[in-house]
Amino acid sequence: MSRQTSSLFSAALIGPALIGSVRKLDPRAMIRNPVMFVVEVVAALTTVLFARDLVTGGNDLAFSGQIILWLWFTLIFANFAEALAEGRGKAQADSLRRTRTEMTAKRLKGAGRAYETVPGTALKVGDVVLVEAGDLIPSDGEVIEGVASVNEAAITGESAPVIRESGGDRSAVTGGTQVLSDEIKVRITAAAGSTFVDRMIALVEGASRQKTPNEIALNILLAGLTIVFVFAVASIPSFASYAGGSIPVIVLVALFVTLIPTTIGALLSAIGIAGMDRLVRFNVLAMSGRAVEAAGDVDTLLLDKTGTITLGNRQATEFRPVSGVSAQELADAAQLASLADETPEGRSIVVLAKEKYGIRARDMAGLNATFVPFTAQSRMSGVDLESASIRKGAVDAVIASLSGQPVASRGSNAALAFQPAPETGAVKEIRAIAEEIAKAGGTPLAVAQDGRLLGVVYLKDIVKGGIRERFAELRQMGIRTVMITGDNPMTAAAIAAEAGVDDFLAQATPEDKLALIRKEQADGKLVAMCGDGTNDAPALAQADVGVAMNTGTVAAREAGNMVDLDSDPTKLIEIVGIGKQLLMTRGALTTFSIANDVAKYFAIIPAMFLGLYPQLQALNIMGLASPQSAILSAIIFNALIIVALIPLALRGVTYRAVGAAALLRRNLLIYGLGGVLVPFVGIKAIDLAVSALHLV
Amino acid sequence: MNLNGWIQIALYCAVVLALVKPLGSYMTRVFTGERTLLSPVLGPVERGLYRVSGIDARQEQHWLAYTGAVILFHVLGFAVLYAILRLQAVLPLNPADQTAVAPDLAFNTSTSFITNTNWQSYGGETTLSYLSQMLGLTHQNFLSAATGIAVAVALIRGFARASSGTIGSFWVDVTRATLYVLLPICVPYTLFLVWQGMPQTLGAYVHATTLEGAHQTLALGPVASQVAIKMLGTNGGGFFNANAAHPFENPTALSNFVQMVSIFVIGAALTNVFGRMVGDERQGWAILGAMGILFLAGVLVTYWAEAHGSSVLNSFGLTGGNMEGKETRFGIAASALFAVITTAASCGAVNAMHDSFTALGGLIPLLNMQLGEIIIGGVGAGLYGMLIFVIVAIFVAGLMVGRTPEYLGKKIEAKEVKMAMLGILCLPLMMLGFTALATVVPAGLAGPANAGPHGFSEILYAYTSAAANNGSAFGGLTANTLFYNSTLAIGMLVGRFFVKIPVLAIAGSLAAKKTVPASAGTFPTHGGLFVGLLVGVILIIGGLTFFPSLALGPVVEHLAGAAGQTFATGG
C-alpha cells in the first residue's frame, strides 16, 4: 500500500470519480441520501415538464433549461464528492488486492511435514498450513509452531521485518504478508473473504460502509428540514393565487432546492469516507465508522506506561555509592559487570560510566572475564574476573547473596563473591538509598564486588519527550488520561507526576483494567485503550474504542474495534483527534449549509414575487440584475458551493487541541457567520457573470 | 417613542426578572416534592385529593403512561366542556338566557380551551352563560395551564435524571401545579383585580340609560376570577369580546401592568426551575437570555413601528403614532408591549386591535407565534418548545466541538432529533397548510375583511394563532363559520399534541440515558455564545420557514404603504 498522500484532485482519481458520479445517479443508490434523492426527484420532474414545453412551445425555455441543467449538476457534484472520497480508498484497495491474488497454501495433512498445495481461497478455519521462507502467508492465522521473520509491508507499509512466533503476544499473522526466514506452522483463523485484508479492502472502498449513529441522526435532521421547506414552498402557489398571480413551477423548484440543505446532504457521505480514509492513511484500521465517532467522544484514555508514556526501557542516570566508596569506583565496577550485558539497562550503564566518569569500554576477552548472565532465580548478573567478582541486580537479591544464601552461579570464583560478610551498616545504607530511588519512581540496582556492597545504580524510566505537553493538550480537550502500569504505587505515582497524567492504575492486572473501564462507563464516560496481549482482550472489547496492536494476538485483534498497523500505542491520541475532526467537519458543513439559506431567500423571494408585488424589489438587497438572473445565480451558487467545499470535506476542518468553548467560538465565526455572509458575495458575483454573459 | 414608554418597558422587564428567582425556587420545591410554605395548608388537601381519586403519589410513570394520562385528561376535559356549552340553555346560572352553542362553535371552543389556545370565534357576553364561563372555561384555564407546566416539568426531569425509567407522575404534577402554583397566586390576584374595578358578580347584566338618554346593556359577570387565570395561565380567552381592551376586563394602567407581568411570570420562572433541577442555574438563565433577546427585539420593532405610524395615515394629516385600535388609557407603548408579550407567550389576550397595527407592528406578533411561542411562551409550553430548538441548535452546531452533540450531559441522538423535528414540523404544516387552503377555497376567501396583503395577513394570523395555541385574533376575520371553526380546531389540536407527545417521548428517552459528566471538551451551554447560537438557529429555521408568507403579508403591505399604495376592499 502506498504511503504517499495522493493529492486531493490528482488526475488519476478525477476521471473514475466523474464516471462514478454519473453512475451514482441511479435512484436506487440515491435513496440512501434523502436530501439528494429529493433533488433528483424534482430534477426529473422538471426535466419531463421541460420536454413537454419543448414540444408544445413554452415561455422562457432557455431559463428553465439552464435551471434544470444546474439541478443535474448539483446532483453530479454531490456524487462526485462521494466518488472521489471512495476513489482514494479504492486506489489503496487495488494495491491490497494485488498482493492477495493467486496465493497458494501448503496445507499440512497431519502432524508431520507432509502437505498438499491448495489455493488460498480453499482454506477453512482450523486448517494448519506450513509457511516457509519466501512464501506468502495464505490467510490470517496464529503461529502454532516455530518462529520466523515476516515482512508485513503489504499491510503496514513498513519494510523492516517483524518477528512472529508461537505462544506469547506475537503469534498473529496476517494473510498476504511474506515470511522472510525460517518456517512456521500457522493455524488459519479466518475464512476466505473475511480475512483482515478483505475487511481492509471493504473498509477503504466504503463498500461495507454503514451509516453511523450520528450520521443517521443528522440525516433525520436534514430530512426534517427538507420537509419544513416542502411546506414553505408548497404553500406559495396558493398565496400567489390569492395575490392574483402565479409562480412558474421551475422557480418554485429553484427556491426549494436552494433552501433544503443540499450542501451538507451532498458532502455527508464523503466526509464519513474521508474520515475513515484519514485513519487508514495513519495506518489505523477502524472496524466500523461507529468506532471513529466514538473516538471523538472519548472522555478517558487508558494508556500503558511502557511504550506509550515512557521509552520501553529504564536507563541508568546516576551512581550512588555507599559511604567509603567513590562514585568512580562504583561506576568502574558497574561498567565491568555490564560490558557483556546486552540488555538496554546494561548498555545504559556503560554509556553513563563513559559520559560521567570517562570510563572507556574494555575488551572482555583481554580481561579474561566471564560474563554471568541474568537468571530468574538469581535475579542478578555480573562478571567474574581473575582478580574480582562483580554482581549487580535487584537490591534484595544482592543483599541476600551477601548473607551467603545459596545462589546459583557459574563463575569459577563464585566462592570468592559470596563470602558471608555482613556489613550491616552498608546494608542499611543501601536499603535507604534504594527506598529513596523507588520513591522517586526509579529502579535501584545494587552492585557488589567480592562480597562488598559498593552502591546503587539509579535506573530510571525515561518519560518520552513531549508527552507531558500532549497530556496537557488532552486535558484542554477535556480528556482524562490514566496510566496503566504493573509498577508498585510509589513508582507509578512518581512517573505519573512526571508525565503529567491525570491518574494511574498501579500493579494493574487485566481484571483491574476491565474494572476501571466499567467504572468509568458507569459514570457515563467513553473509554479508549490499546492493548496487544490475549489478556487485554476483555478490556479491549469492553472499551468504547479498543485499539489492538497489529503485533498482538489474534484474540486482541478480534476484541478491539481498531487495529493499529504500526503497533504504536501513542497513536491513541491521534485517533481521538481524527475522530473529533470527523465530527467537527460534519458540524461545520451542516452549520454552513443552513446559514446559507438567509442569502438565498434574499435572492429568490423578491425575484419570485416581483410580478405580484413590485414593491418587494426593496428586498433585493444584493441588487441582482433581474429576477431570472437572481434565481439562476442562486441555483448556480448552490451547485458550485458543493464543489468548492469538497476539499474541506475530504481533508477535514483544521483541528486544534483547545477547549470546547474556544473551538466553538472559532467554528461558529467561520462556518456560522461565514455561512451567512459568503453566499451574499457569491450570488452577487455569479449574478454579475450571468448578466455579463447574457445567460438570461 | 418617548421616555415614558421606555420606562414602562424597562420597569416591566425588571419586575419580571425580579420574580424569576423566588418563584423559580418555590416551583422547584413544589415539583421535586419538597415541603413549601404552603404545605401545612395545602398538604392535607392534596393528600385528600389523591385518596379520593385513588392515586398513589409515589407511583411514577413511564413516558408512555404519562402521555396516556395527558391524553385521557384532555379527552375528558373536552367532553365535559363540550357538554356544558351545548347544554348551557338548560343549565343554571344563565341570567342572560344564552342559547345552546352551535356544534361547530362548541367543538372549536372546547378544543380551544383544552389546548390552552383560547381562540374565540364568539363574543363571550353575547354567547356564554356564567356557568359556561366559570365551570367550563375558567376550569379549563386552570387545567390546560397545569398540563403545560406538567409536561415541561416532565421534560426537565428527562434532562435531570440519569438511567431512569420514569419521568414523574402526571396526576401528581397536574395537581401540584394547580394547587400550589396557580390557585395560590390567583386568589389574591383576583382580589387585586376587583379592587382595580373589575366586576365579580353572578348578578344579571345591568341596563343603563346614558346621559344622552340612550339605553345600554352593561355586561357583567364573574370577570375577575376568570381574568386572573386567563393571564397567569397564558390562556388569553377574554370574558368579553373586546378582551383586555374592555374597561371591565382591564380597568386601569396598573391592572394592565400587572396583567402583563402575570402573563410572563410563570414561563420565565420555569427557566429557573429548569436550571435548578438540572443542577446549574446558569443553564436556565441562558435560555431566558435567548428568550429575552428575541423579546426585546420584538418590542423594539413594534414600539418603533407603532410610534411612527404609517405614511398612509400621515397623508390624511394623522401624524405621530398609530392610535387606531388602541385604548387611550394604555397608549402606544403599553399597547405595543402588550401585543408582543401576549404573542411571545401563548396568551392571546389583547388590549388593542392587532389588525389595526401598522404592517411591521403586526408582523412581530405574527412572527412571535410562528417561531412556536418560545419567547417565554405559554406556561410550560414555552419552555419545552424552546428546549426543542435547543436540541436542534445543539445538534447542528454541537458537532463543531468534535463530540457527538450533548446537552446537559445527555447525548442527543437519532430519537431526540426525530422527535424534535416532529415537534417543529407540525407548526408550519398547520399554519402554512391551512392558510394555503383558505386562500384558495371560497369558504376561506369569505373570511377576511380586507383585500390585498392585509387580508392575507388576517388569514395567516388566524391559523398561526391557532396552531401556536396563542388564541389572539388579528381581528377582521369572520371566523365563526363551519370552515374556520373546524380547520382552526384541527390546527389547535395538532399544534398542541404533536408538540406535547414528541416532547414527552424526548423526556422518556433522555431520562433513560446516562449523564456524561461535563469536561473542558463539553459544549458550553450557559454562556453568551450559546445564547447567540440558539437565537440564530431559531431565526434561521423558524423564521425562514415563514419568510415567503411574511413577505406576501405584512412586508409587502409595509412597502406598499410606504409608497402610499393601498388595497381596495374586494379588489
UniProtKB/TrEMBL annotation, chain A:
It catalyses: K(+)(out) + ATP + H2O = K(+)(in) + ADP + phosphate + H(+). SUPFAM superfamilies: Calcium ATPase, transduction domain A, Calcium ATPase, transmembrane domain M, HAD-like, Metal cation-transporting ATPase, ATP-binding domain N. Keywords: ATP-binding, Cell membrane, Hydrolase, Ion transport, Magnesium, Membrane, Metal-binding, Nucleotide-binding, Phosphoprotein, Potassium, Potassium transport, Translocase, Transmembrane, Transmembrane helix, Transport. This is Potassium-transporting ATPase ATP-binding subunit. It is a multi-pass membrane protein. Its EC number is 7.2.2.6. The active site is at D304 (4-aspartylphosphate intermediate).
Automatic annotation (TrEMBL), chain B:
The chain crosses the membrane at residues 6-24, 63-85, 137-156, 177-195, 257-274, 286-305, 330-350, 357-376, 382-401, 422-445, 482-507, 528-547. It is found in: Cell membrane. The keyword Membrane applies. Coiled coil: none annotated. Keywords: Cell membrane, Ion transport, Membrane, Potassium, Potassium transport, Transmembrane, Transmembrane helix, Transport. It is a multi-pass membrane protein. The system is composed of three essential subunits: KdpA, KdpB and KdpC. NCBIfam families: kdpA. It comes from the Bacteria. The keyword tRNA-binding does not apply. Belongs to the KdpA family. This is Potassium-transporting ATPase potassium-binding subunit. It comes from Methylobacterium fujisawaense.
